[in-house]
Automatic annotation (TrEMBL):
Parent-protein start and end of this portion: 31 to 175 of 229
Residues that hold ATP according to the record: 10, 56, 84, 90, 104, 114
Catalytic residues (UniProt): 117 (pros-phosphohistidine intermediate)
Domain of life: Eukaryota
Protein's organism: Limulus polyphemus (Atlantic horseshoe crab)
Nucleoside diphosphate kinase-like domain boundaries: 2-140
Family: Belongs to the NDK family.
Annotated protein name in UniProt: Nucleoside diphosphate kinase homolog 5-like
């Protein structure tokens, strides 16, 4: 199935954006949309609302609103799972052990500064794409429905 997913190059990954975008294209993704922006703390809090209870939530909000990010809508067969394969495990230390060619292995720092984000399901992909690109039309969105 052809899918869309949301990729974010996080503040610590932006200086490697060219290398990351080259990997994206080499992996057969089409970059359908791309924006560079800086989240406000309020927007970062909302984007990561599902992590509200986590001990790292306040730090995550500060980090993700602390500098520019690049957000992209990627398209490909099986895009959601494939992008998560390409970025590797959440923790860069684990990525370096188990998937040394992955983006987080190559460009990530610590557990928090892991260079990139990828949607983890079709439900979150749709929510996350709409978060940054509110005009996006999904197949289930029929005018008058
Ligand atoms: P991501 O999977 O994109 O979304 C949740 C983010 O929280 C994750 O990337 C990291 O940036 C951050 N995160 C996850 N686990 C930790 C942790 N143990 N300590 C600090 N930050 C974390």
């Amino acid at each position: 199935e052809i899918e869309r997913t949301l990729a974010i190059i996080k503040p610590d990954g932006v200086d490697k954006a060219n290398e990351i975008e080259e990997t994206i294209l080499n992996e057969g993704f089409t970059i359908l949309q791309k924006r560079s922006l800086q989240l406000t703390p309020e927007q970062a809090s909302e984007f990561y609302a599902e992590h509200f209870e986590k001990p790292f939530y306040p730090r995550l909000v500060t980090y993700m609103s602390g500098g520019p990010i690049i957000v992209m809508v990627l398209v490909r067969e099986n895009a959601i799972l494939h992008w998560r394969e390409v970025i590797g495990p959440t923790k860069p230390s684990v990525a370096r052990e188990t998937k040394p060619d992955s983006i987080r292995a190559k460009y990530g720092g610590d557990d928090e500064h892991n260079a990139v984000h990828g949607s983890d399901s079709s439900t979150s992909a749709e929510r996350e794409i709409r978060f940054f690109f509110p005009d996006t039309v999904f197949e289930s969105t029929l005018i008058g429905d």
